[in-house]
Design brief:
The structure holds two protein chains of two kinds. By secondary structure, chain A is mostly helical. Chain A is about 75% helix and about 0% strand. Chain B is α/β, with parallel strands linked by helices. The chains are: A mainly alpha, B alpha/beta. The interface of A and B includes residues 3, 14, 64 and 71 of A.
């Protein structure tokens, strides 16, 4: 699996376009984090999408998957290698964005003769941890979609899932279908659970209902990804 | 070693057109044997190879390699594979690519650089090429590095899909020599290729596939090898004399324009005996070659 992680990181950071885009996003996120470390670093889904997009599907469409799977590698190991690779890459992004945020928070005011603000490292650390916790779920969802969708459709599917699950309870309420609205709300809470990581990271509601649903969702999406990928066939022609 | 039993595979379905790529294919490949898969485009060769590698699941039938399913890790640890479509990580350098596959094949990391250099040398890739990204490689260089990765750790099983496709004559000879080396050390090789002369030079047996079925098999080497067609070339006007000498030596020979003499021989040793018979009749032999005429298998109504 380590080799698969290494391969993923090489693929992602071997592309100048991705590195540049991540750099710009890190600057933007860092600028926001300078003012609100926990709030800005937590939801960085755009950078995660950039890191994780097509993580499996690109290997499949490019034909690289065959020579990898011809080696003594379990499909699950390949998949978890991609997953861990996404998290490491995203963790790196959060660190760089935090670095920018801390620099902006402490150094920028000094350039203008003012006193630098307190770097508030614990808040940055909680922001990074919250970002990684969110990434555990979003990366699992992206990985699941990437096992059967083509190209970068996994990212599109994630946003569609977001949109649909957010809109469904509202639509059901508008239609005055109370049962449907309740079901849609419960479904959204279980598929995309919202956890108050700020509270959890301060030791509050660590074993609460939301964290339980979040853990089940992470494991569920990963299990689905392994199931779909282990059953998938690979060919590049019918010759 | 490899036992394929009544293998069937159909693509498509639901709304798409259904294509039966394999239709009850049965095949046995012995340990150390080199088998060529030949047949027209769409015959099912790549599908068969994909089933042998465990990339495709058959609708019916089974594949067993040494008694194990093809995707068993113990099988994979002994397998080298070169695909026709070289979908490598183009952002990697040649050296990094080979090192990565060395490690994936179970090799120690510390030995990676040395083994990558040795693998590149085996396929006559310059050392400088290992520092370049695969995106900058020519088609021929990609073929070579593809072969190099397949041969890493001297696999017992080699599956090669058009290994010399798009290469120059030097590349073709190189692929042949590496395959003959692998064969000499006892590897079991399954070769899918349209390059019939190369198939004939390397393979012990050919399996002809057509419309998803095995329609013919020919043994090229060994005691059970099929009769070959030999062609001798003698000076123009001496073909009749050569035919007479060959007839006296027990060969069925017929002249073929411009000093050519065609005869059937049961094996390679027989060609030497035929040449000797013609020379003893005072007819110079300018050229002698033997061929299985595998192209004949492609012709409608041929031996396929």
């Amino acid at each position: 699996m380590i080799e698969m992680v290494r391969r993923f990181l090489r693929q992602r950071f071997g592309s100048a376009a991705i590195v540049t885009a991540l750099g710009v996003l890190a600057l933007m996120t860092g600028a926001q984090a300078a003012a609100n470390p926990e709030g800005a670093l937590g939801p960085g889904i755009l950078a995660l999408a950039l890191v994780a997009a097509g993580s499996v599907s690109r290997d499949v469409s490019g034909g690289a998957i065959q020579i990898i799977l011809a080696r003594p590698i379990r499909r699950a190991s390949y998949l978890f290698g991609r997953y861990v690779g996404i998290l490491i890459a995203y963790g790196g992004f959060l660190l760089v964005a935090s670095g920018f945020g801390i620099a902006l928070r402490t150094l920028l005011p000094r350039l203008f003769g003012a006193a630098g603000a307190d770097p508030d490292l614990p808040a940055f650390a909680r922001g990074i941890a919250a970002g990684l916790a969110n990434a555990l779920l979003f990366a699992a969802i992206l990985l699941f979609f990437s096992t059967f969708l083509r190209g970068y459709a996994d990212v599109l599917a994630l946003f569609v899932l977001f949109g649909a699950l957010s809109a469904l309870p509202t639509v059901a309420a508008q239609l005055r279908k109370a049962d449907l609205a309740r079901f849609a709300e419960r479904f959204r809470e279980n598929v995309l659970p919202e956890v108050d990581w700020s509270a959890v990271l301060r030791g509050q509601r660590v074993l609460g209902e939301a964290t339980g649903r979040w853990a089940v969702a992470v494991v569920g999406f990963l299990a689905l990804a392994v199931f779909v990928f282990s059953r998938r066939e690979f060919t590049y022609g019918q010759d | 070693m490899i036992v394929v039993t009544q293998l069937s595979k159909t693509y498509g379905g639901l709304l798409g057109r259904r294509v039966k790529a394999l239709d009850g294919v049965s095949l046995e490949i012995r340990r150390g044997e080199t088998v060529g898969l030949i047949g027209p485009n769409g015959a099912g060769k790549t599908t068969l190879l994909s089933c042998l590698l465990g990339f495709l699941r058959p609708d019916a039938g089974s594949v067993r390699i040494g008694g194990l399913p093809p995707d068993d890790l113990a099988v994979r640890a002994r397998t080298g594979y070169m695909p026709e479509r070289l979908g490598f990580d183009r952002d990697l350098t040649g050296g990094a690519f080979l090192e990565q596959h060395w490690r994936l094949a179970g090799g120690a990391s510390a030995e990676g650089p040395r083994e990558a250099a040795a693998a590149a040398a085996r396929v006559e890739l310059e050392a400088a090429a290992l520092g370049r990204k695969l995106a900058k490689y020519s088609r021929g260089m990609l073929q070579r590095i593809g072969l190099a990765q397949a041969l890493l750790r001297d696999p017992e099983l080699l599956f090669l899909d058009e290994p010399a496709s798009g290469t120059d004559p030097n590349g073709i000879a190189l692929v042949r020599n590496r395959l003959l080396e692998a064969k000499a050390r006892g590897a079991t090789i399954v070769l899918n290729s349209h390059q019939l002369p190369e198939v004939e030079r390397v393979c012990d047996r050919v399996v002809f596939l057509s419309a998803g079925r095995v329609t013919a098999e020919r043994t090229l080497r060994g005691e059970a090898s099929a009769p070959r067609r030999a062609m001798l070339r003698v000076p123009p006007g001496r073909a009749e004399a050569a035919c007479a000498a060959l007839a006296a030596a027990g060969f069925a020979a017929a002249p073929e324009g411009d000093g050519g003499v065609r005869l059937d021989v049961s094996g390679e040793d027989e060609i030497a005996r035929a040449v000797r018979a013609v020379v003893l009749a005072d007819v110079p032999v300018l050229e002698a070659r033997a061929s299985m005429d595998l192209e004949e298998m492609f012709r409608p109504g041929g031996s396929a």
